[in-house]
Amino acid sequence: MTVPARRTYPDGPVHLTGSFPVPDAAPAPGCRRCAVLVDARAAARAACDYSQVSDANVLIRRHPH
Question: Which residues neighbour 28 within 8 Å (Cβ) at sequence distance 6 or greater?
Fold first, then answer.
């Protein structure tokens, strides 16, 4: 005797809220550290290293202004 298959997925599609991709972090005006991170982010994006782009965005957002 076979057991009927058990459904292991949600009933309907999952809709994520928010925007994707997340927009780039805005640097603080006149902040040297933010300017360095913006340059690093641009270089990483040019090299298609999106992990580093994300890291730079996180550091800019977390930088105390």
Answer: 34, 63, 65
Give domain status of residue 37, yes or no.
yes
pTM above 0.85, yes or no: no
Whether 20 maps to a domain, the answer reads no
Structural domain includes residue 1: no
Taking the C-alpha atoms of residue 14 and residue 11, their distance in angstroms, rounded to an integer, is 9
Query: Apex CA 29: angle with CA 60 and CA 40, to 5°?
Result: 40
Residue 57 belongs to domain spanning: 32-62
17-49 confidence digits (pLDDT tens): 777 778 999 999 999 999 999 999 999 999 999
